């Protein structure tokens, strides 16, 4: 229906334009009705239109929810999120990262939020600096953050960030993932995150040294690039003093669980 | 795929347009060889009124708004005559500024239609009068130079009849305008590419291709090959940035199912004017069972060369003559270089006929030659790993590049010029950085190669085949060489020249009348159709004084190619004609003053 209407309007416009053009073509161009027919002169000179010929410094904004999933099995179902968002130019961006768990009992833990300035420094890597805020059901902590993020050789997505708190604590977080294409849309993603701390922080049930690993193997299907449900397995493990603190608090030290979720970006 | 009802609707539209076009000829009395035959309307004469307006279209089955001229996509075919002075009143009915650039036409700088460089653009509601003498003939096109309007439909054919008559006789004359249509907003497309540069690539290597390559080449070779590309963080499947995942490919504005048809009587000589007005799509064109004789490239006559197929990069034009002798239909088949889809039309003795639509050729893969590293691979690696790199694609055209490219005659032209100063690339070497992910170590001429992706045994047009029918206007040798690196970062989707985006660059200076060689060195592994406004690019392809005049030079990955220009005063745009590359920074001002 609309195509039909389009066709009609198109034809009408063309016919009108053509007839008008033909009629005008026979009119002497110097006729008083057309004084503006001097080449290059728009009938009214625009003023504020002198932008650059190409806009190569645009600001783009995106958000990625890498993990948005239920972890099933063990003591009960937990909810896990892990995402990041950024906005800026090719060189400078504001970058936000957020991750955490909502446990089956309603408590929120591992809630790490980062607010970073991101600067592209090499072909494949960005430097990031800013603040990390541990916001969840535990005691809040604030950190200065400094790290790199990018694409390592052999297509590994990596992030390495160091943190320093005003209480003299240091920490580090390493993340890595890899997309293995089984088909054009079916993608297996191994992923790992490690957290290290210089000192123990009983207020957050964290011990010194390697405190925890979160690693998973997720099989997603990209119905579109931006929407990909997945299933997989995830292992969440606490180590050393962190494990001891967890046991003392009556919690588990981790295990393998089934996950189901959706990866999305915008 | 479009629904049958859509086909019917398009047929109706086509009919109405055809009727309008016929009316136009009746009024102007300028009807000659041109026939509408389901194409866009044709306007001819010396005075043209063009109105740019948002116009509803339905190409895929979903209603969208295109940026149309006089209500049609493509815009009306303009037929000019060499020697006339044409006046074009262009009215902008959009809510944003617009412009029209006459691609390949030698115009005074203020008539060139590049907002921010040659004029202010055409404000909403305003009319801009273009007027200039037509000093050339041939097949060209016109399009918007504002934002992404070219992607949304603002493009049309331009045919200029030669003053002295045609060099080649023909009975029929058709424009075959190729373009790529997306229902998605171009701003969304580029935003997607910024997030994920392989967003539209659904031809990537997978577990399946790994197993197939292992079965053919062995596990060690396959792993070595994957490791080599992985180490560089590049994908050999990166052929076109935007694919059939979002594009529908059009012939004269019509999708494949609508089957645009041109009529002939058996034995007639049919001139087909191929124009690639796509935003991002390079096409490989063939007409199964019909040889094509290329007689013109980028509007300039060349010695006839008969081929089975030619690759037409974005913004290029090729005129061919075909002579179908049998009383049957032939399919005009233009497959996207990445084989993600095709545009299709038909040559038929009667309306309603069609011929089988061929299957697309195997998808090409990038090679180390495209990376500008083939020189480093001579010997052991060449035959071991290079062949692996052409994985699973049947033929291995990449194997020939190293050997053939080195013998290219354009290299000899360059060596003949002793004592010449070089500016640009050599003086300021490019190094990897945020905007550059690769620098070609061994760039080489590739004029003797048609490119990757062609099965063996098919005669495919090469740039070295293009030989002008008359010597160029300026016989002087160049006095200066300007080296320009074509650079980019695929992962970040940043594009530029010499590692800089337009916004970070200075104009390239040339003096009026100065004879200059511009050497293009492609540090990326993708093709870039490089277009210089205002003056022809005289391609140094080994034919000496008979070098072809082109307006757009498709530079292959890892290639070094050069052309000569004579400075014509003005501020001229110089850019990659892949729309999103240009808009992301692969653009320069050439300032002739």
Overview of the molecule:
Chain A has 266 residues and is mostly beta strands. In chain A, 12% of the residues lie in helices and 52% in strands. Chain A has helices at 2-25, 240-248; strands spanning 60-72, 78-88, 92-102, 108-120, 125-134, 141-152, 156-165, 170-177, 180-181, 186-197, 209-221, 227-238, 254-265. Chain B has 593 residues and is α+β, with helices and mostly antiparallel strands. Helices cover 16% and strands 32% of the residues of chain B. Chain B is built from eight helices and 32 strands. Chain B has helices at residues 4-28, 186-195, 207-217, 219-232, 380-389, 398-406, 409-416, 579-583, and strands at 42-44, 47-58, 63-69, 77-81, 85-92, 101-103, 127-133, 138-143, 155-161, 172-182, 247-251, 260-263, 270-276, 283-286, 292-297, 300-307, 309-312, 317-322, 330-336, 342-348, 421-424, 480-489, 494-497, 508-510, 515-522, 528-532, 537-539, 549-550, 552-555, 560-566, 570-576, 587-592. In chain B, strands 21, 22, 23, 25, 27, 28 and 30 form a seven-stranded mixed β-sheet that branches. In chain B, strands 11-10-13-18-15-16 form a six-stranded mixed β-sheet, with no helix packed on it. In chain B, helix 3 packs across helix 4 and helix 4 crosses helix 5 (380-389). The longest helix of chain B has 25 residues, at 4-28. Chain B is globular. At the A-B interface, helix 1, strand 1 and strand 9 of A face helix 1, strand 2, strand 7, helix 2 and helix 4 of B.
